[in-house]
Write a structure and sequence with these properties.
The complex is a heterodimer of chains A (317) and B (242). With 317 residues, chain A is mainly α. Chain A contains 14 helices and 2 strands, in the order H-H-H-H-H-E-H-H-H-H-E-H-H-H-H-H. In chain A, helix 1 packs across helix 11, helix 2 runs parallel beside helix 4 and helix 11 runs parallel beside helix 12. In chain B, the strands form 2 sheets. In chain B, strands 3, 6, 7, 8, 9, 10 and 11 form a 7-stranded mixed β-sheet that branches. In chain B, strands 2-1-4-5 form a 4-stranded antiparallel β-sheet, with helices on one face. Classes of the chains: A mainly alpha (317), B alpha/beta (242). Chains A and B meet through helix 7, helix 8 and helix 14 of A and helix 3, strand 6 and helix 4 of B. The structure holds adenosine-5'-triphosphate and magnesium ion. Magnesium ion binds next to helix 2 of chain B.
Chain lengths: 317, 242
Amino acid sequence: MNLDWLDAFLIFGAFKVVEIMGLGLLVHLQLGLTRVANFGVVGFWGVGLYAFGVAHLKVDWPFGDPYQFLVCAAIATVAAAAAGLVVGWLISELDDDGTLVGTLGFATIVVILATTQQGLTGGALGLGGLGFPYDFGRVKTHEFTWLLITTAVVALIFVYAWRVHRTPHGRLLIAVGANEALARSLGKSATAARLRMMTVTSGAMGLLGAMHGVMVRSLEINSLDVGVTLAALAALILGGTARVFGAVVGVLLTVALFDIVIQFYLPIPDGWNTQALPVAREAVFGAAIVLMLIFRPQGLLGQMRRPALMRRLHGDW
Amino acid sequence: MVGIAGDSSVTPAVAVRGLSSGYGSVAVLHEVDFTVGHEIFAVLGANGAGKTTLLATLAGLLPAFSGSIAYHGTDVTNLAASESARLGVGYVPQEAAVFPDLSVLENFTVGGMIGTRPHEERLEEVFETFPDLRDKLHLRAGNLSGGESRMVACGRALMQDPNVLLLDEPTAGLSPLYLQLFFEKIADIHRTRGMSIVLTEQNATQALAIADRVMVLSLGVGSEPMLADAVTTDLLREGYQI
Ligand SMILES: Nc1ncnc2c1ncn2[C@@H]1O[C@H](COP(=O)(O)OP(=O)(O)OP(=O)(O)O)[C@@H](O)[C@H]1O
Ligand SMILES: [Mg+2]
C-alpha cells in the first residue's frame, strides 16, 4: 500500500474523529434515549484501555496475535460492560444530579486506580509495548489499517444505535427516559432495560478504549483525560442528543474541525499546536455545550422524529 | 353488580385493608379500607385529599407504610409496579400520562408489551372505543390536545388488557362536552370489556352518574363506601366540603 500522500498526523486526527464518533453514538443511547447523563465516559473507555493493556502486557498468553488481541479486547469489553452494569445499578435510584456525580466519581476512581496500581499499569510512567495485531510492512500502513478497522467497529456501533431506534427495547428505553414511573406501570422492568443499555454501551466504550491502546501502542495516564468525555458530549450535544446522526454531524464540527482542519490546514505558528490549541479546543467545546444548551438544546438536527419513523415503518394503519 | 361488591363470599377485584402511605416518612393516607368488585368505584375528594397518592400506591409506585392491597385475592402490597401491571392493573396517572416523544401508535405499542392477545386485536378494540385516534396514529403524543392525550393514555392502559383500571382524574381539564363524552367512554369500557374501574374525581356530579359506589377521601382518611345512587352532591358538599 503506497500511503505517501497521507500525513501520519492525519491518520491520528481521523482516528480521533472516528473514536469520538463511536463514543458519541454510545452516549446518544445513554443520554439521548434513556436520559442517563454519563459524565464518566472516559472512565468506561479507560477501563477498556487499561484492562486491554494490562491483559496484553502482564499475562503470558500461550498464543500470539491476532488471537492475543482478540482475547484481550474481549476482556476489555467485558470489564467495561461489568463496570457499566455496576455503575448503572448504583445510579439507578439516583436523580440526574446524582447520576452526574456518580459517573464523574467513577471516572475519577478509574484514574486513581490506574495511577496507583503501578505494578500493573506502570502508574504515572505508563507502559509501552502494545502493538498492532498484524505485521505487514511499514508502521504507517499498520496505522492506516487500524484506522480502517476502527472505522468498521464504529460503523457497527452506528448500525446498532440505528437499529435500537427500531426495536421494542429502544422504545422502552425512550419510555423509561421520559417517565420512569409510567414506564414501570407498563409491566416491564425499567431497571432491567436501563441496565441492559448501560452494560452494552459501556462494553462498547471499553472496546473503543482497547482499540485506542493499540493505536497509541502504550498505556499513558494522561490519556485518561476528561477531554474524552467532553469531546463526546460536545459532539453529541452540538449535533443533537436525540438523533442517531447527532454524534456523526457533531463530531465533524468539533473534533474534525480542531484535530484535522485547524491543526493541519490552517497556517498556525509552531508551538501553538502543542500549547494553545488543546486549551482552546477544550474551551471551545465547553462553550459549544453551554451555548447549545441555552439556545438550541435539541441540537442542530433537532428532536426525535419517532412519528415520521413509525409512519415509514408501519404506514397507515 | 353492586351486590357483588358488597358480597364478602366473592373475591373482590381490589381489596384494600388499613392502607397507609405517603412520601418519604410523611404519611398522606391513613388506614384506608375498601373493596372493589366488578364495578366502577369513584374516589372523591378535595385538592390535596390524597386521591393521587392512593392510586399511585395501588399501582405499586409508592410503597405502603402499612396495610395491604390485593388484586383478585393476590397480595401485591410489596410488589413492584411492573409486577402489579402484569397481574392486570392498568394505571392512568393524573399528569404526564403519555410518553411525549413517542407517537400515538407507539404509546399503544408500549402498552401492549405485556399480555398474550394479538396486538392488532387489542388495537382494534382501542379504536372502537376512541375512533378519533385512528387518524392521529402517527402524531407525536406530546403534541396532542389535553383531551386527545387523555384518550391516548386510556388507550395505552387498555392495551395492557387490564382487569382493574385505575384512572386518576381522567377528565381534569377537559371542556364540558369532552368531559361528558369521556365519562360515557368510561362507562362503556366497563360495560363492554367488563373490567373493574377505580377512578378519582373532583367532578362529583358526573362521577356519581356513572359510578356504582363512591368513597370520599378527606385529609387522607377514607369514608365508608356508599352506593352512588344514595349520594347527592348536596350531601357531599355539606358532609365533606367537596
Ligand atoms: N411528591 C410528593 N412529596 C411530598 N408530598 C406530596 C407529594 N405529592 C403530594 N404530596 C402531598 O400529599 C397530599 C395529597 O396529595 P395528592 O396529590 O394525593 O392529592 P389529590 O387528592 O390527588 O389532589 P388533587 O385533586 O389536587 O390532584 C398533599 O398534601 C400533597 O402536598
Ligand atoms: Mg391528584
